[in-house]
Specification:
This protein is of the alpha/beta class. The chain contains 6 helices and 7 strands, in the order βαβαβαβαβαβαβ. It starts with a strand and ends in an 8-residue tail after the last strand. The structure holds NADP nicotinamide-adenine-dinucleotide phosphate. Pfam families: adh_short.
Length: 236
């Protein structure tokens, strides 16, 4: 048990979440809890479970629903037995894409804020006891460089960028309150996924390999800070 690690990834039925699950399972030392809204329809995860029997647990989680979060915590406790949670990766998110500060949908703004900021806050709070039992106590809040004010990207992505900036701030608050945790945010790069789109220049296989290497070796030195998938530090 000494060199085995437990991981939980939200939004893992497609995109970067699915890629991280697949890469982590290549090592038999990893037990992965892959969460998604509809386990019955998560065919890619089901295929992985057949290939990596015992090391992958698929658990239902609608990240914006407190009752679903509580059910998920119970299911994870059963799956992990006497083990804690070593890594929590808050990955699930949505985007209003290229909307602007004067041309946005108010409900879309609320939904994005709920999914991308409030949900990871609720999930991290709910999993705190299991993280405290874990050997690593690492939390990744998947952000985006679009949330960087220093970057000055311009008008588009107003809702998404505002939410990621708020997620970044929450990360610094979590790190300040709990120096015993290693909690940081990262930009995974502009990757080819449903959210990133077809024009994205980066292959999730490449970016997630680098990002997972960084996450696996993170220490308290990395906590409360903002990192690119390559391991460079980003300016807020
Ligand atoms: N791709 C990029 O270029 C890029 C760039 C910067 C940052 N990011 C960040 O990287 C992360 C992953 O992005 P991605 O490109 O993999 O996105 P994606 O392909 O659109 O996948 C998003 C995932 O989040 C899940 N999700 C959304 N709302 C949810 C909810 N309410 N409850 C549970 N799950 C929910 C989706 O589940 P369903 O299948 O059920 O909808 C899906 O599994 C996000 O945090 C994103 O902001 C991505």
């Amino acid at each position: 048990m000494l060199n085995t690690f437990t991981w939980l990834i939200t939004g893992s039925n497609r995109g970067l979440g699915l890629e991280m699950v697949e890469q982590l399972l290549q090592s038999p030392t990893h037990t992965v809890i892959a969460t998604c809204r509809n386990p019955d329809k998560a065919t890619a995860l089901q295929d992985l479970r057949t290939r990596f029997l015992g090391n992958l647990h698929i658990v239902k989680l609608e990240v914006t629903d407190q009752a679903s979060i509580e059910e998920c915590v119970k299911a994870v406790e059963i799956a992990l037995g006497d083990r804690g949670l070593d890594y929590l990766l808050n990955n699930a998110a949505i985007s209003e894409q290229r909307d602007t500060a004067f041309n946005f949908n108010a409900q879309g703004y609320i939904d994005t804020f709920y999914t991308n900021v409030l949900a990871p806050a609720m999930i991290t709070r709910a999993f705190l006891p299991l993280l405290e039992k874990g050997k690593r106590k690492v939390i990744l809040n998947m952000s985006s460089q679009l949330g960087s004010m220093a970057w000055r990207f311009g008008a588009p992505y107003a809702t998404y960028a505002s939410c990621k900036a708020a997620l970044n701030m929450m990360t610094t608050k979590q790190a300040a309150e709990r120096p015993d945790l290693i909690v940081f945010c990262m930009c995974p790069g502009w990757c080819k996924t449903d959210l990133g789109g077809e024009d994205a220049p980066l292959d999730p296989k490449v970016t997630m390999a680098s990002l997972l290497k960084f996450v696996s070796s993170a220490t308290s030195e990395h906590s409360g800070r903002y990192w690119r998938w390559t391991g460079e530090e980003l300016e807020w």
